[in-house]
Amino acid sequence: MSQAARTLPVDACLARLEGLQRGKARLEAREIEFLARLWDNPPPVPAGGKRHLAAVELAQMSITQEVACALRISYEEAGARLRNASRLVNWFGNTFALLQVGQISSRHSTALLDLTRNLDPQVAATVEKSVLEKAPTQSPADYRRAVRRAVAK
User: What integer is the mean pLDDT of 110-120?
Assistant: First the structure.
């Protein structure tokens, strides 16, 4: 433990923890931006040979493997992160904006993504709108419950 952490008053430690949490959310939002860009506009796969998949599908498979290697995660995890990043940026822009400024955590955005996964985009947007205002004041667990209730309506 650092000397600074040992000697800071409790209030100062709590304030630093809050600042770190906001900073983590902003950093995660930056990662999401890059992941969404890569998923939505992957670099083209060179032409040649017979293809059994569309060019965009091949490009997404290729970028998924690149992300998996870069982040040292499984191909499946990389694919999930890429798809979720794209959905968050393209479907849930207001939630993404709150994440960018550190008002909510990535656990909030994950709850929204998970619970609206099987919904029509317009219905999912309605769910987001109904729960977004209180999100900055709710814990991720409380927010998940609110999203679950909104989905059930």
Answer: 97
